[in-house]
Specification:
The structure is a homodimer of 212-residue chains.
Chain A (H helix, E strand, L loop, with lengths): L7 H13 L15 H9 L11 E5 L3 H19 L4 H9 L10 E8 L16 H19 L3 E5 L7 H5 L5 E10 L9 H4 L12 E3 L1
Antiparallel strand pairs in A: 1-2, 2-4, 3-4
Chain lengths: 212, 212
């Protein structure tokens, strides 16, 4: 079997996609086209998974009451996390918008099914955490697929994970991984919001590489 | 600022990339072109990270002695993990090739720097594990970028993570995430090796989705 050959033009566009993927917190309220979310979730399921366990579970939030509860939880956690900062960082923290849960037309919670027999445990005897890492790769796959459709995504992580199963009425053995906002972004940029606001610059590549 | 608009032709190719990304364990021994690994690692650094913490640390293995030690460790762990199976699964397990550490021209170990101040803790007060999840998204980004260059990648996870820092002489506060093999694959396929060998089929999409 011969696989597809990707050319330089495709690779340039892929690099462009990577460079313009953003963690989006500012969304337009207009809906995504019918069926697009399903298309994106299908793409996400092409992420790798340890032992082909496919442990990702996606929960699309439709209920306005559940959306309101999520907003309340994240706003509470944002305030609590702010206590850790002082001075310039404190002032800057207060100005950062950390989620688009009010505006985004789609909200998806992502869990890892930690009791599924799928994959028969292969590849995770010594590193059981690779099961939920498989779900994380699906999130990045979803992110890139969304951006290719002009859809922005934001990953909200200031949340008490232990409360999510009851709040969303999902099985207790699912581990909460991510709360995602999806929709058309208000603006597009190749610069991360935290760089633009002076919170954290990009590191030079040499900082992150060694040879041994 | 107006971002790039990706068209249906690009999206079709991206879907094709996702479908033909594989966890590769069978490599040709020929080298990758000079500089390509650096190009791929640069792409990986465009993965998202919590608070823009960029905690990924990539260690390129050059020493034959270190490669030999990694092979010994993984082969030992593969045998140990095999004890958990019996019957048909046991027989099938014995036939599975789980890594290409002997043949792959490039081996990269990936760690998470858990003490870096970069990102100033933003976004991980309630879920500190999102720091190492950021590194996991970089691995998936690397995987896709590699495949776009015709390079296959395999993630080896049957390894004792606690032993990796000493074996590779990296700081003790780096957390081991992944051992990656990279090189030209022996063959290409759109079917995961574990599906082909009857270990684990793909799940239907409905298995992984709920509405709430």
């Amino acid at each position: 079997m011969t696989g597809p050959v990707f050319d330089a033009a495709f690779r340039d566009q892929l690099d462009c996609l990577l460079a313009w993927r953003r963690d989006v917190r500012h969304f337009q309220t207009r809906n995504m086209p019918d069926g697009l979310l399903d298309t994106l979730l299908e793409a996400a399921c092409h992420g790798p998974s340890v032992g082909n366990a496919q442990p990702w579970r996606f929960v699309r939030i439709r209920s306005p009451e559940r959306r309101a509860a999520l907003i309340a939880e994240v706003d509470t956690q944002k305030r609590a996390a702010g206590e850790a900062y002082s001075g310039d960082h404190k002032a800057l923290y207060e100005t950062l918008k950390l989620h688009g849960l009010r505006e985004a037309p789609e909200i998806v919670a992502v869990f890892c099914d930690e009791q599924s027999e799928t994959g028969h445990g292969l590849g995770r005897a010594t590193m059981p955490e690779t099961l939920c890492w498989s779900v994380v790769t699906a999130v990045q796959t979803l992110w890139l697929s969304a951006r290719a459709h002009g859809i922005g995504m934001g990953w909200v992580s200031i949340i008490n994970p232990a409360g999510m199963n009851a709040m969303l009425d999902v099985p207790a053995h699912w581990r909460f991984i991510a709360l995602l906002c999806l929709g058309y972004p208000e603006r597009e940029t190749d610069t991360p919001e935290l760089v633009r606001h002076g919170w954290q610059d990009r590191l030079p590549p040499t900082t992150t590489r060694l040879e041994r």
